[in-house]
Amino acid sequence: MLFGKSSPSPPSSPTTELPETNANIFSKLTFWWLNGLMSLGYKRPLEKDDLYDLNDARSAKFVTDKFEIEWKKETEKISLGKKPSLIKLYIELCGLDFA
């Protein structure tokens, strides 16, 4: 508990949306949005039904497809005499979500 506010409660069903989606910048920077799940995991072993749904933008298929598209754009720079940049690729893929 911080500033008299309780942490988000853990998911009650497997269809619960990932709280990170609606978390403010403070919650994202400190991973505060995970407190409910961590608290539950401290009390008992987590089960599959305790976990939040992963949105499509976080799925491995989506990220891989997007990576391949953006990497192709970066490697096309080689023909222009420029080096491809993993940093630019990372920013293009993740934006400010993880930066």
Q: Which features characterize this protein?
A:
99 residues; 4 helices; elongated
**Rounded radius of gyration (Å):** 18 Å
Structural class assignment:
mainly alpha
Total discrete domains? 2
Query: What coarse outline follows from CA principal-axis ratios?
Result: elongated
| Number of H- or I-type helical stretches | 4
Helix % is: 40-55%
**Terminal residue distance:** 27 Å
Order of helices and strands: HHHH
Strand content: under 5%
pLDDT averaged over residues: 81
Number of strands: 0
Strand count, sense and barrel status of the largest sheet are: none
Low-pLDDT stretches are: none
Quick synopsis:
The protein is mostly helical and 99 residues long. It is built from 4 helices and no strands. It has 2 domains: 53 residues, no CATH class; 39 residues, no CATH class.
Task: Explain how this protein is built.
This protein is mainly α. The chain folds into two domains: 1-53, no CATH class; 56-94, no CATH class. 40% of the residues lie in helices and 0% in strands. It has helices spanning 25-30, 35-43, 60-75, 86-94. The mean pLDDT is 81.
What's the helix and strand layout?
Layout: H1 25-30, H2 35-43, H3 60-75, H4 86-94
